[in-house]
Amino acid sequence: MIAAFCIFRDFFMTVRHFLSLLDYPLADYRRILARAADLKQAYEAGIRPATLRQRVLGMIFEKASTRTRLSFEAGMAQLGGTAIFLSPRDTQLGRGEPVEDSARVMSRMVDAVMIRAKDHAMIEQFAAYSKVPVINALTDINHPCQLLADVFTFEQKRGSIQGKRVAWIGDGFNMCHSYINAAQVFDFELMIATPIGYEPDADIVAAAGGRIHLVNTAEEAALDADLVVTDVWASMGQEEERERRLRDFSDFTIDDRVMDKANADALFMHCLPAHRGEEVTAGVMDGPQSVVWEEAEARLHTQKALLEFLILGDVSADLSNPN
Ligand code: CP
Ligand code: NVA
Fold it and tell me: Can you tell me the mean pLDDT for 159-169?
């Protein structure tokens, strides 16, 4: 009888993955971001609630990372849990063990799996065979965790992002796609300026409706913006295209002239790592409108809330349970 119930329950229980910002309704993100604000306050007050005590996060990195690894690993430790770093170089995944077999095995041993993958299809395949939540920590399609941090940072400084005007200037790649998803979920206007040939995926743009506007120059995108955002011109895996990209993107540097088109209180963000003198000048990157360090720190707070949401089934109310 109990066995039959378990089979029934397992069959109908869907695992909560986070592969794209489009996976959950706005109300869920509102709870996650509110929880992140509480966790940030608690962290600053020296309080470490152990809401994920004895929980384990597996972390698969097919590409390099500083912020993502640190924020997930530190976040799990601060919530009383553990994170295990798995490099394809040192695991059987890197020697050709099928993704679905790896997912079946790993998800029997950990409470969630975070993946930074070269190919978005890998993460989807892993999720399809995983019994535990899978978190997208960057693919060639999107980077949804970064957007939780970016929206959180904007709202901590300026209040709700709904109805605001955001300028994306640079490559129409993974970060740009997540900004398009975010415009759809959080309901803001997104102006996008890319060089010809580097536009974002047309289907992702179309799905976001009338909030997305593709323009030709950095100045047009920045006009009256509340937030100006960029990313590297050559992403991980595009190193061989670097010289061509430096030429193609040369009119898309965010400098004082571009920032002057935006609102006087506009913020500047960059997911980092940044290349001063390429996509952004040192003056803007290190200037008064830049919030890039707060943005990087926000990865910690927002992902702790995300981990609670995915592993516990919702964010925890408990801030008192000491670690
Ligand atoms: N922004 C970001 O994801 O940084 P890392 O590549 O250092 O993880
Ligand atoms: N677009 C960049 C983001 C790094 C966080 C890349 O994919 O390398």
Answer: 98
